[in-house]
Structures are given as C-alpha cells and as structure tokens.
Design goal:
Blueprint lengths: L1 H15 L11 E5 L2 E7 L5 H11 L8 H9 L4 E7 L6 E10 L4 E9 L8 H15 L4 E7 L3 H9 L3 E6 L9 E7 L12
Parallel strand pairs: 5-6
Antiparallel strand pairs: 1-2, 2-3, 3-4, 4-5, 6-8, 7-8
Helix pairs in contact: 2-3
Length: about 200
C-alpha cells in the first residue's frame, strides 16, 4: 500500500508543482573554449536528434530507442532534457536528461551524451554543471546518476564535480556490465557560478 501512496503523492506534487515554465522555454548562447553554442530545452520534435547523438556516442548502439526519448521528453512536468546545438545550423551535438524525484528531493541524470566529434571541448562538463544548477535552483538537494564500470573517463568527470560512488550495481547494463550509482549532495556545498534567469 505504501508504494502506491508514494506514487500518488509524487503525482499530486507534480500536478500542483510542475517544473518552472521558464525551464522549458529558454534559449541561450554560451561560449565554451573559443566556440559559441546554443542551449535550449529539447522538445518531442528533437527526439530523433537526441537519438542520433546517443548512437554516435555509443558507437552505433543506443541504450534507448527513439520512442523512449519521445516519452521522456513528453513528461515535461518532471523531466527536462537540455541540448547543446551549433549556432546557425541548430545541429544537436550533446544533451543531458534530468528526472526530478520530489519524494526524495533528488534530481537524477537519466542520460548525458556528446557526439564523439565534439568531445573533449567541455560540453559534457558544462551540461552536468548546468543540470546541477537547475536542480539546486528548483530546491532539489541531491543529484544521482549511473555510470558503466568501464567508463573511467565519465567517472573522473563526475568525481571532479563532487560525485561519489555509492554502490556497485551488478550486471546493471543489458550486456551484463556492472555499473556504479554515483551521487552528490547539492545543498550548501555546490556552486556552479552559473545563474539562470
């Protein structure tokens, strides 16, 4: 009975307190390194572009089919996907997905992907910091994610940003690889230097 009450409580919270409308309507230019990019929230029309980035980042495979991206983006009351695009062409080159869990005041990173051609330019780091900033500004106290045990590069980025390994998830991924749960407390100890308006 308690799990059902928790689901009902979460539904009621998001029905009465959706994510701020501004988070789904912004468009902003940012400079990373010497290059300018555009960031904006993804819409259902962008699902195929996010899928293409994911396929490129995962060497031809993708953990999620395009239908899952459409479904995730459609839950705008408690999900947010932020994408980085090339100005002018609006080609999506990276994105981060965030699921907000009100019952535990946790923002969970569902996906982070950057097209391999655009990696090592600070885009993934920027997207993570942006996600952390959004979570903190809507008063969420914790951020979590999962990462493959073999993805040492991503683990290093997350640890630099203050995430800690919480536990190992045995055979978490479809291919049987283990994953790590990683998390960070956002209250008081995190300052990104980014202000959202």
């Amino acid at each position: 009975m308690k799990p059902m009450l928790n689901k009902l409580s979460n539904w009621f919270y998001w029905w009465t307190h959706p994510l701020p409308k501004e988070l789904h309507e912004f468009r902003q230019n940012v400079v990373l390194g010497n290059s300018e990019y555009t960031i904006s929230p993804a819409t259902i029309a962008d699902a195929s572009a996010l899928f293409r980035v994911e396929q490129a980042a995962y060497a031809g495979g993708a953990p999620w089919p395009v239908e899952v991206f459409r479904n995730e983006i459609s839950h705008a009351r408690y999900r947010l996907y932020v994408m980085v695009c090339m100005p002018g062409t609006n080609t999506v080159i990276g994105y981060v997905g965030i699921a907000f869990r009100p019952g535990v005041k946790e923002a969970h990173v569902t996906n982070l992907a950057v097209d391999p051609i655009w990696q090592s330019r600070g885009i993934g780091r920027f997207l993570m910091i942006y996600a952390m900033t959004i979570a903190q500004q809507v008063n969420f106290q914790r951020m979590s994610l999962e990462v493959r045990k073999s993805n040492v590069r991503a683990q290093a980025l997350y640890e630099e940003l203050g995430f800690q390994k919480i536990r190992t998830k045995r055979a978490y991924y479809e291919d049987g690889e283990d994953g790590y749960d990683m998390a960070q407390i956002l209250v008081g100890g995190f300052s990104s230097g980014i202000e959202l308006s």
